[in-house]
Amino acid sequence: MTIKKGSFVIEGLENVQINIGKVVGQGQEIEGPTPRPEIISLRNWDYRILDRYNPVYTPTGDTCDYCTYGKCDLTGNKEGACGIDLEGQSAREALRISIMGAACHSAHGRHLLNYLIRKYGEDYPIDVGPSNLKAPLTETIMGVTPKTIGDFLPVLEYVEEQLTQLTAAINTGQEGAAIDFESKALHAGMLDLLGMEVADIIQISCLNLPKAEENTPLAEIGMGILDPKKPVVICVGHNIAAPAYILDHMDRNGLFDKIEIAGLCCTAHDMTRYKKTAKIIGSMSKELKYIRSGIPDVLVTDEQCVRADILREAKKLQIPVIATNEKITYGLPDRSNDPVDAIVEDLASGKNEGALILDLEKVGEVVPKLAMKIGPIRKAKGITALPDDEEFKKLVSKCTKCLQCTRDCPQSLPISDAMAAAVGGDLSKFEELHDRCVGCGRCDYSCPADIPVLNVIEKASQRVIREEKGKVRIGRGQIGDPEIREEGRNLVLGTTPGVLAFVGCGNYPDGTKDVYDVVEEMLRRSYIIISSGCSAMDIGMYKDTEGKTLYERYPGRFIKGNLLNTGSCVSNAHIAATTIKVASIFAGRKTKGNWEEIADYVLNRVGAVGIAWGAYSQKAFAIGTGCNRLGIPVVVGPHGTKYRRAFIGKPYRKDKWNVLDARDGSVINVEPAPEHLMITAETKNELMPLLAKLCFRPSDNSLGRAIKLTHYIELSEKYMKKMPDDWHIYVRNEADLPLAKKEQLMKLLEEKGWKIDWDKKKIMEGPLRKVDVSFQPTNVPRLCKEVKK
Amino acid sequence: MANEFPFEISPMFEGERVRKDDMFVELAGPKSRGFELVRAASVDEIEDGKFTLIGPDISEMQEGSRHPYAMIYRIAGKLVEPDLEAIVERRNHDFQNYIQGYMHLNQRYDVWVRINKDAIKKGLKSFEQIAKATMMLFKNELPFIEKIEATYVTNPEEVEKQRAEAIKIYEARDARTRGLHDEDVDVFYGCTLCQSFAPTNVCVVTPDRISLCGAINWFDGRAAAKVDPEGPQFAIPKGEVIDKISGEYSGVNEKAVALSGGEYSRIRIHSFFEYPHTSCGCFEVVGFYIPEVDGIGWVDRDFTGTAPNGLAFSTMAGQTGGGKQIIGFLGVGVNYFRSPKFIQADGGWNRVIWMPKNLKEKIKADIPPELVDKLPTEEDVTDLKTLRDYLEKKQHPITQRWTKEEAAAETVAEAPAGAAPEWSMPAPAMGMPVGMPMVPMQFGGGEGMKLTFKNAKITIDRVVLRSKEK
Ligand code: SF4
Ligand code: SF4
Ligand code: SF4
């Protein structure tokens, strides 16, 4: 019989009742050496990667004021009063940022878990779609296979405990060496992946979000998609719990025709995953802009990526704010225990500017009622922060071209030029600005002439905003095993040059169009593109000449040349986890408690790269750092330099690129692949060849290498207008050369001093090493069969 | 880099479609006629790089028009032989699609080509440019081609005439492929492409067994081994026949040791239970043993439901793969169902007792006719009980195995009736091959202990289950 929790009566046994309280560890076998790794358990692996990919710091200041000894000057080789040096302090910052990000996702997971357990019970089964490894990160880190949502309780307990340990290490007088701060930062990054996996798996299972579905429907996205004549509810943040109640209530009461409801930021993704009819306004960059338009009649906040001034901004426009999460409460009165009608009355009448309601069922009822009530009132008043035409003219002519706004703008946008053009009636400059503006609102504070700059930009861009209507494929959740198996053939034959994950926020250097452009180029080159979060939204904002978005042009299966959206930020875990599945499916690598071996496999074999082009928050840093520990390189956009730490490989340090051949432990010097673990690209032109290059892996067979090299060279020629300087170091023999240019490239190699046998068309001398398909690269000595003396 | 052609050549253009509105001309295709053909010739017959066009050239064609189209290549070289023609020919599709603005669909007499207007604008004038680029790619990729010449035909009568010839050649070739069996050749081919992901996988490709992934057949292996004998595909001399039925050969076994890094020393090519072929991860179909009926079910990647044993493809595939020999599970390419030696060591088709409807439809023509109606799908049976009943009712050949074994196992007690949990074994009478893992194993079970309880109430706060120390 199966042993499970509950009361049992056994036939044939008189009056015997057996009660079993809890069944622990259902015969599960730990397979690797590090189940539940402590903060130091994976230090060897971290040291291995940090030895090759050196942390490079770009601190914004060279002082430290963490404690009351400070402020301490850390310039030159000076140490602070506590003994820490600048490198150590910079690494400590990296750890701090990682912890914050990890805490954010795990706390999100914790909120969901407590809530879902209350509602569905601990024994509610996990269901994520066709998958053998249902929770790859949980298995790899914890060494257990969760079956029910209750099984995640010890997982989050572990994350929370570890985060406390890590946080303790930051305190003055604790950890002192940069390398160990970084090892701990990598640990935090890994915990972040785990926390995200828990959050998304439980919501997929309980709320029935798409389960590894390739053909999820398309959702509408854009600032122009809602009918502003109807009452409008906007949910801002990341946590589906509260919006789910609102959607349910609206469904039960047939309110979808009467009320417009949409989400801003990741909540929006999960709303569409929950109810296919929900809509998406856009990423966090749209938050202030959309509120200022005055269109929302009720704002519902949950957690993460919610502007700290949302209440102030909303209040000016008489938009009531309903806060639904303990983490963001804005000093609002707690109305969780008050009757629905009383709350609605107080908010509609303007008596209160908002309410904290932690009883989510109540939120579900209050919000639609409130919207129906206040909507007509606000519409009648025509409330908006945007100037009317006349005011607009006055405002733009007030500009003195002092350029203070441009100096303060994180994007350094040429605002005064646009103002000048608008005086002459030309709004095109503003329309351009609108796309590149991240909606931070800093310019409002800079302007000495008191011009509400953001409002002016938005007013001037009404035409383009109205047309802002795109499509996003609804988040699919995990990548199912059958898809990975099918794609395996392309991955193995090398016809899929790589897997690129576009993730993270919208703090782009030059507008959302860049992401679209890069994704389109790489899709045409048959890379698999997986996206999530705000990037997934922005990819859907542009259309080709036939009016089709990328999601309409490229299907959503995990197969070459396809475009996938996994869902909200927490679904990023699935992207990282896909590499674990590859190791498990194709190499039969044991996963449970076996992080190092899996990460080693990924680093040496799986050509996957993460791109956080508009990364802004600590969360994005933590995700990136977690991917790094799993052996996945990450590229961030130019604003990523503000994270102040990169992991850079040095191709010229030959000794750093030694790997072992697992067959016999012999040392092989390989090409620098992947070259970096975390690096910034300055422009999209620089980004594209870099992505192609970061997909190289030591294990590439010749077919794969030739295709990867083709794209590397072509992208460099197309966007950088030159052959890459280092293309030849990735050539191991003539079969690695791009087919169409074989002869030309061989000539170039000859010029570099390589020996070519032109009769046989063979490279005789030159490459760093030979191709050997059975070569089993590893960085971990214990994985070798016998270590050579 | 300088480019001698007025178009780019890159794998990036592989998926490129030329829509009607963007099209300059359409060649061959469903509304016209055409074909592509590669023939082996002797070295002195061929003038390397020569191009001949019979019929109008691109520059003489009207925008928006449609023409018949044939591409004939003659190749020569020391290693070139007629058995390679089909392989080389198939690459025409890949290579021509690398050409920007040129779309090539299908193969043989179904080819369908479109050239877009942009390509013309950029300077494409003649078929010679296309042929030269294609020939260059052929020689770059397949260095055993020492000389190559091309003849393209756009003249309608000439296409008709040559097409009839070509069809005869295709038929003769197919007959040779069908007629070629493991016993007719001295070498098999190994493929190690998968090893970059699945280090211990050993793929043996024989005339009667296509690779697991379905991408490489014996002829492909042969061609690739000629290109580069040290490359990912290489010859495996068969050596001594150890067992003809199951397909065990000394040469294969020797290679298995070397390739798997000593992990495996025996491989039986047409065996399911004993020393089966290794499975990497990308197999199209997985076979699984169902002990309750002593038969083998097959489930493919596209099937989203559960097999009669209650498991989904992904779960069973999860037991397989990793480049390992796994007894009780076997990953194969769909084409292996078409092999006359299909798991012949273990009873071949007679042992097959279930597969999803779509898969059955796909390979219907290859199922022995007397079995087609006896082979249930998810529409006929849902669990082990209905499966057993169905097989019994239809008198599936597997039932003969039952009678034999049931008779032999008469003394074994029947399992207690009723209350059988989902995956317990209703009748543990069936013989099972030695070493068979019971995958979805239940824990607990009799260990030879007897407890008697009366009027008891047992409360267990928590049960901790641990696996045995090894
Ligand atoms: S933590 Fe150290 S370096 Fe920083 S202020 Fe305190 S003493 Fe100075
Ligand atoms: S709101 Fe836009 S324009 Fe203003 S400072 Fe921020 S990014 Fe610059
Ligand atoms: S700060 Fe104000 S006045 Fe100065 S340039 Fe900007 S908009 Fe004009």
Could you characterize what this model shows?
The complex is a heterodimer of chains A (789) and B (470). Helix content of chain A is 42%, strand content 12%. Chain A contains 28 helices and 26 strands. In chain A, the strands form eight sheets. In chain A, strands 10-9-8-11-12-13 form a six-stranded parallel β-sheet, sandwiched between helices. A six-stranded parallel β-sheet of chain A has the order 17-16-15-18-19-23, with helices on both faces. In chain A, strands 22-21-26 form a three-stranded antiparallel β-sheet. In chain A, helix 2 runs parallel beside helix 5 (178-207), helix 5 packs across helix 23 (572-587) and helix 19 crosses helix 23 (572-587). Chain A is globular. The two termini of chain A are 52 Å apart. Chain B has 470 residues and is α/β, with parallel strands linked by helices. Chain B folds into two domains: 2-175, Bifunctional carbon monoxide dehydrogenase/acetyl-coa synthase(codh/acs), Chain M, domain 3 (2-Layer Sandwich), CATH 3.30.1650.10; 182-393, Ribonuclease HI, Chain A (3-Layer(aba) Sandwich), CATH 3.40.970. Chain B has helices at 85-97, 117-121, 127-141, 156-179, 218-227, 250-259, 313-319, 357-363, 369-372, 384-394, 398-408; strands spanning 23-28, 34-40, 51-54, 65-67, 69-76, 102-105, 112-116, 147-153, 187-191, 203-205, 233-237, 241-243, 248-249, 285-290, 295-300, 329-332, 352-354, 457-460, 463-464. In chain B, the strands form five sheets. Chain B has a four-stranded mixed β-sheet with strand order 4-1-7-6. The longest helix of chain B is centred in the middle third of the chain and has 24 residues, at 156-179. Residues 410-450 of chain B have low confidence and may be disordered. The interface between A and B is large, with 79 and 70 residues. The site of one iron/sulfur cluster has 12 residues of chain A, from loops. One iron/sulfur cluster binds at residues 409-411, 413, 415, 437-443, 453-454 of chain A.
